[in-house]
Amino acid sequence: MKTKTDLRSILQRIDRRGYKAYREIQGTYQFDDFTLLLDHVQGDPFAEPSRMRVRVDQARAGFPPDTYQGKNREIGLRDYLTRQFHQAILQVCPRQRRGTGRSGLIQIDAPGQEILLRTSCLINERFVEARFKVGLPAAGRSILAKEALVMLFHELPQIVGMSLFMKKLNHRLLYEHLEVNEDQDALRQMLEPSKLVAFVAEGSCLPRMSGVDDRPLEEAAVLFRAPESLQFTFTLPTSGEVTGMGIPEGVTLIIGGGYHGKSTLLDALQRSVYNHIPGDGRERCVTVSDAVKIRAEDGRNIETVDISPFINNLPYGKDTTSFSTPNASGSTSQAANIIEMLEVGATALFIDEDTSATNFMIRDRRMQLMVAKEKEPITPLIDKIRLLCSERGVSTVLVVGGSGDYFDVADTVIGMEEYVPKELTAEARRIVTEVKTQRSSEGGVSFGDVRDRIPMAASIDASRGKREVKITTQGTRGIGFGTNTIDLTALEQLVSPSQTLAVAKSLVYLRNNYMNGLRPVRELMAMLERDLTVQGLDVLSKRSSGEYALPRRLEVAGALNRLRSLRAKYAEQTD
Ligand code: ADP
Ligand code: MG
Fold first, then answer.
1. Residue 546 is part of which domain span?
2. Which of 212, 259, 418 for a ligand 1 pocket mutation test, highest count of atoms within 8 Å of Cβ?
3. 10 shares its domain with 138
4. Is 395 helix (H, G, I), strand (E, B) or coil?
């Protein structure tokens, strides 16, 4: 193996030469405490920064087995070390400018409030590895070797020294991270045996700093209190007993006046399909992992979805058992969003009136009298919500401040009052008997079919120009997929840009490996989930990349369904 002295002499030799000469440093070099792997060197100072890895032998790094053995600990430690590396970068080189373009940049995946399986850091019995990007410095297009030497021989060793050695880290905080992560996984496992879809611990801090800042609101936050009648107590593996509010399976309403914290509670629930970091405020809140937020999304593309459980008799006889449109309405989009998520196995739906189509949610008595059922294409959710539960075992948590008609179909009613929940199920029952809605139920005797669809591989094309795969991502908002763009803004449970990239790559992976014109979306997503969790996210690309975080199959399916070029057909029905 080459040594750091070799690297230094190459850099000194190519100083001031054209940027392409940086290619010569590609390779592996032994430093004092680590190995530096220069995997890919950028072509010019404005291009994607160069991809590098650092490996520290476990003998030197010194992480005890109990910090990474077992899936859960491993994920926790990889996430923690990524955060330490990121912090170290900010401390060692806050400015990150050493010339033209991206010169001077050192970058690792910057995690948010969730603990996710990431490729930015790896750990096993043999080594710890960090994967990051470096903008190799230049003035104009000529190499600045002196600056590169500072980055690779001074800054980088400092960053590595601060983050990848057990003895340099705060053991208490490190173990807290691992234990909080472990407790959340364990708590989530306890939901189903207790017939709960979610749990929010006493003392949790649910409100966020702002609509664009996911950190906890610190001042003036009212901490969570569980109503007595919904209290559950669980024993966690590392931190003992925890008491909080359990949300039972079935149909749950969150009601209450405007601005009393309904949406904040629902947001916390939908985010708690992921584990949160210590101090987040939601680190003792968990939700069943296949719960999905559903919202209206007018304008979206829909490709061959049987939305007939909710929508029938469209004008001019448009078929709703095989519905396609490049421009869905609020109600048809919300219907398709539900059916598509049932297709890939969602077990709970979270719906907020703030982001729903009113006519999808409710048709009241007066409107039923005015517009006959035959003339109204929409069967509102209120008339299907119990069938979803009884026939398909799918629970719903619904924020409705606006319609008491839903009292008829609720199992549990939670009222928010000045950010404090109360159980109001008994009051709601009383009102149901005293004040009739006089609605007639329009839902029929069965929910209806959810049919398997088979995507056509040829319709999933990421090529653009000469490039076979051209993918760009815009945070968690969208994907440029070949000549298509995929709008992801309605997938609220996509939480990290690194998940977005993994979603995009997953579509390509599925197309190249598994789509054969026979396998339905449901099966494809199961295969993907298996590969990503068993083999790891590295299956998504030929070169090792530090830029992936594990997405749920629900969001991958969500992206596939929103690809405007998608063509699909129904699988043969065997039953
Ligand atoms: P609703 O959906 O009931 O209209 P929101 O959940 O949107 O209300 O909350 C309204 C405002 O109150 C938001 O700015 C939110 O951040 C804040 N908020 C919510 N819960 C709390 C809490 N527990 N403590 C302090 N502020 C809160
Ligand atoms: Mg609201």
1. 453-570
2. 259
3. yes
4. strand
